[in-house]
Every structure is written in structure tokens, then in C-alpha cells.
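tool=predict chain=A
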Amino acid sequence: MTPDRVRSALVDSIAELTRSSASRISDGDDLIEDLGVDSMVVVNLLMAIEDKLGVTLPEGSESSLVGARTVGDLSERLIGALEVDGTDAAAAYGSSP
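tool=predict ok
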């Protein structure tokens, strides 16, 4: 599984749950202010991502996702929680360690 696949599953799930267009969702979008993602949507979002990717988030990883403010931040945290093999999440997003 690649970081791009995780991000794509995240964006597709956000689009479905918020009735938005996936093409209009960017990494800088604020989950609450821009997309209207509330706590109930987050629960459904995590379940949808697990279904799309065919994975189960490791127990307790949800707490590491709670503070995410933007789509990009949540994507990075998901990649970390899923321990995407062979990929440095920071490099994938152009940030330095």
C-alpha cells in the first residue's frame, strides 16, 4: 500500500461522507471549517477507510488521529498508523524530518 492509495481512500471517503467533490478537496482543507467533518463523520470516515483499503487500524491508533486539523495532516497520521511499508511519510509529502 502506498501513501497515494491511503490519501486517495481518505479523500474519496471524505467526499462521500460530506457530499463534496473529491477533486475539490486538497491537503490544506480544514476538516471542520472547510469540510464540515464533525466527530460522527470522523467515526464513519475511519470505518470507510478501513473498508476501502481492506485493513484494520491498529488498536489505539484512533487517538493519534484525533488532533488532525487538515486533510494532509490526517493523511500523514493515517499513513503512520498503518505503517505503510517502504515509504517515508515525510518524504512523500515533501517535508523534512
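The mean pLDDT is 84. The two ends are 22 Å apart (CA to CA).
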